[in-house]
Each structure stands twice: as C-alpha cells, then as structure tokens.
Amino acid sequence: MKKIKISPSILSADFSQLGNEIKRLEKAGADMIHVDVMDGHFVPNLTIGPPVIKSLRKYTNLIFDVHLMISPVHKYIKDFSDAGANVITIHPEATENLKESIDLIKSLDKKAGVSLNPDSKIDLITNVLKDIDLVLVMSVYPGFGGQKFMPEVISKIENLQKIKERDSLNFDIEVDGGINFENSKNVINAGANILVSGTTIFKSNNGDIKKNIETLKIN
Asked: Which of 28-32, 41-45, 127-131, 170-174 shows the lowest mean pLDDT across its residues?
C-alpha cells in the first residue's frame, strides 16, 4: 500500500501567526509544508517571497514544498533555494526553457517539480518526466484558496500514473485545489500520493488539524 503524504497549504493559515501555525501542522502530523508563491502577474494574486520563507525556516525541519506561480521563474529559483525551499515546483508556461530551469533546481540540490494547470496538457512535460521528482496537478485554476475541486483532472492523474508505470519512472503525483474528505479517495485511487489542502485542514472539524490530516490520509 502506497504511503499518502499531506502537504498543508499555509495559504489558509493565520498569516499573523505563520511560525506558530507551521509548528501546529508539524505536531499534527503534516508530512510537508506547502508554500504558494504568487506574483500578481502569472496568477491574479500576491503572496509571499523568499524573505518570508527564510524567516519561517527556523520553525520546522519539515520539507518546504514551494510552488512558484511566478513568471519569468528562472531568475528567482536560486533565491527560493537559498531561502530554504526543499522542493521547487514551476510551471512550464513560466520559463523559456523548462529543462534548463529543472537542471538549475537540481544543481542546487533541491527536488524539482513541474505543475500542470487544469487546462495544461501532459504533453507539455512528457520530455522532462524522467528528470523531475514531482508533478503537481492543479485541480483548480491557481491564484486563490477555497475554490471547488474540478473532477475532470482525475483523468489527467490516471494518465500520469499510467505513464509512470509504463516507463518505470519515479516522480510523485501531487494534487492541489479543493481537496476535501469527499474527493480525496478518488484522487488517491487515480494515482496521487501527495495531497495539498488548505481550507479543509484549517477549517473542518472546528479546526482540528490533526484529525483533518489523518482523515485525508485514510479516507
């Protein structure tokens, strides 16, 4: 049985208490911390940059799973690496040379991820699947938390899993967007092994994040 990891998105945390929120997530059994970085250009919202990530790094030894929704992304990769990111995920549409950006991430001794928006085809990344550690399938259009899960991405997860098995590849399949107790099982059954969740983890069951993390894993 595959191990399911939960990467809570701090986009739904109390931003005035981010350090303490991260400690709470670690204590509650989170496997990673998902950090959404938005530039107001590639996606219609602004969040945090390298200085904030650097300031949060001292609160935990958990993996910082950093999703860069910024364009052009290549010139900022080193900044996020230096700030303490462990996994750096980028969008193929946000770089002039995807392979070059992946190579840069790997040269910094970080895990490299590539993200697919709901309408982005797997064809965009088939030539780099052997080079990366993670595919992040977006099940909402990136930019805002609290959106509704798009069930049409299930087939994309299934197709990625088929390619992974067919070619004996070793990347994680991570899914982000509207993940809750109702759809998590379908996502896992389709092939995902890392679930990103913000609203469900921080708001469900009166904010019992330990219970919410455990329920997402075994639901």
From this structure: 41-45
Is 36 noted as a catalytic residue in this protein? Answer: yes
Side by side, the strands of the sheet bearing 172-176 are 5-8, 194-197, 172-176, 134-138, 111-116, 87-90, 63-69, 32-38
User: Which amino acid, one-letter code, is at 11?
Assistant: L
Tens of pLDDT along 167-205? 999 999 999 999 999 999 999 999 999 999 999 999 999
CATH number of 47's domain: 3.20.20.70
Annotated catalytic residue, options 31, 36, 65, 133: 36
Q: Of these residues, 31, 39, 65, 176, which one is catalytic?
A: 176
Domains identified in the chain, total number? 1
Q: Is the pLDDT of residue 81 over 80?
A: yes
For the chain, the distance separating the N- and C-terminal CA atoms, rounded to the nearest angstrom, is 14
Q: How far apart are CA 109 and CA 159, in angstroms?
A: 29
Q: Is 131 a known active-site residue?
A: no
* pTM (two decimals): 0.96
Nearest to 142 by CA among 189, 101, 175: 175
Note down the domain range covering 70: 5-218
Which two tokens mark 110? Answer: 């970080």
